[in-house]
Amino acid sequence: MRKLLRWSVPAVLSAFLLSLSLNAQTVAPADQPSAADLTQTHGKAVKAVKANKMLGVRRIEPGKDVEPKFSDPVRVDLLLKIIENVYYGRPLQFPKDGVVFKNKEGRLPPKDLGYYHEYTVLPPAGATRTITVGDQEFEISPPQGTRGAERLIIGGGEVAYYSPDHYKTFIQLTILR
User: Does residue 82 sit in the same domain as residue 167?
Assistant: First the structure.
């Protein structure tokens, strides 16, 4: 008399994702695929599911500008593009983009491991190497390797920091909409 329910892995995953989305306090952007749609795909789409807002993960919404002001609009556009790509779960340019930033030096507010994630900020060749952010001037070192020294750190989907000098300095950003 014992009945066994047979669930496929995609069905179980879809049910789990649906339960999370029902408990989430945030809503996914209308132009994004549903959790069920994303579970039908493989590979890189799974990474998009993990970052999807409908799963209750808060993310910084894309914007049109940042504060403090940058002297280089190319970097501002690049920062905003990275934030937009993270927000919409789009593929990122570098394999290490999105990895956990451990905050080993303790220069950012202390948070649990996994709160901060890092992203590569690599302006195109020929971009200015001297920039002003707010009232601070920075001399950006030439890229060594494939990623250069500049980083964007996103904490908990709530706060963003720009580091022009490979984690020596962090400048908190406000995304303007």
Answer: yes
When divided into structural domains, the chain yields a total of: 2
Q: What CATH number corresponds to the domain at position 89?
A: 3.10.450.30
Q: Three-class SS of residue 58?
A: coil
- Identify whether residues 126 and 64 lie together within a single domain: yes
- Residue 166 bears catalytic tag: yes
Same domain, 87 and 158: yes
pLDDT at 58: 62
pLDDT at 129 over 50: yes
User: In the chain, what's the furthest Cα-to-Cα distance?
Assistant: 76
Q: Which of 118, 137, 139, 150 is catalytic?
A: 118
Please indicate whether residue 67 is annotated as part of the active site. Answer: no
pTM of the model: 0.69
Spot the catalytic one: 61, 137, 158, 166: 166
